[in-house]
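Discussion board: Methods & Data

I've been asked by a reviewer to show the raw model output for two of the constructs in my manuscript, not just the figures. I'm not sure how much to include, so I'm pasting the format here to get opinions. Each protein appears as its amino acid sequence followed by a line of discrete structure tokens. Is this the kind of thing reviewers expect to see in a supplement, or should I convert it first? Here is construct A:
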Amino acid sequence: MPKPESFPIEKIFVPTKQKKAIKPETVAEIAESILDIGQQAPISVRLDGDRLVLVEGLHRLEACKALGETTILGILVTAELAQHKPQLAERPEVEAERIKMARLKQLRLEKEAADASAAALKGVRQSEAPRTRPAKGVRDNPKASPGRIVKSKPKSLSDWITQQKGSGGRY
């Protein structure tokens, strides 16, 4: 691994795409840390003609600028390594997002399986012999008063009169 060296800050070019990613609160935190303990992690730069192009360490660079530093610790990397370096820097975040999405997918599949199982169980219960309830007014109690038991409809007028007489009704 190359040894960190000191680079002049004004010679480091920051691509426009990276400038959009600056978070002022992160720059402030890093600046405080640099004041307390110094710069611990070097930035990565690559040569592009006669200028240096920032590969990694935007917030550290901005923190040093904010502190009024003229130089910054950095590592000079090759163009091939510079192409792969941002992917390695993003990898933990990408990996964390991938793990999170996989967990959400697993939870969704478990919920769908539980719902399907509950629906299947409900379907089995419905396909079993349904429990029949007695018709309204009909009781299982043999001691029930005869007036409360629903009787079948009479087929003729004489059957109706007989039924009314038997139940004590008026006709």
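Construct B, same format:
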Amino acid sequence: MEDLDRFDLAILDVLQRDNKTPQREIAVAIGLSAPAVQRRIKRLEENGTIIANIAVVSPSHVGQEITVFVEVEMDSEHAVMHDKARRAFQEAPEVQQCYYVTGEVDFILIVVVKTMGDYEDLTKRLFFSDNNVKRFRSFVAMARVKVGLSVPLDARLKTRNKP
């Protein structure tokens, strides 16, 4: 884990809100030069702190109206079988997120589809065709109340490197 100072955290805070913020604006806001901000961003990308620069697309604006949360319980705990499922989940474009979790289930997926028919096709492809899937349970979202991938930095920004 990289030891991040208050400038790194401030840069990350700005970029998580809008990664198109010009580096000169970030520099003014946090009290560094634009070249220093550029070097820090490059380092944060190279060390894996920043893993992607993406556009977050509204599913409803592109016809993907249905969000489904899926709990998946596997029959076998063998690593080879879990790896096979992980690959299938990673390769499915409908699977937005996949988590390997502790507890009663093995995976939790967040799936976005256009229709329930599309979701049914996905279940056939990912779950019914895999003999190692013991069961799965679906929860259809009624509304997107809060969606995001931002990592909370506020507490670290307030307590880190105080004079």
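Answer (T.O., handling editor elsewhere):
This is acceptable in a supplement if you add a one-line summary per construct. For B, something like: The beta strands are 66-74, 95-100, 107-113, 133-140.
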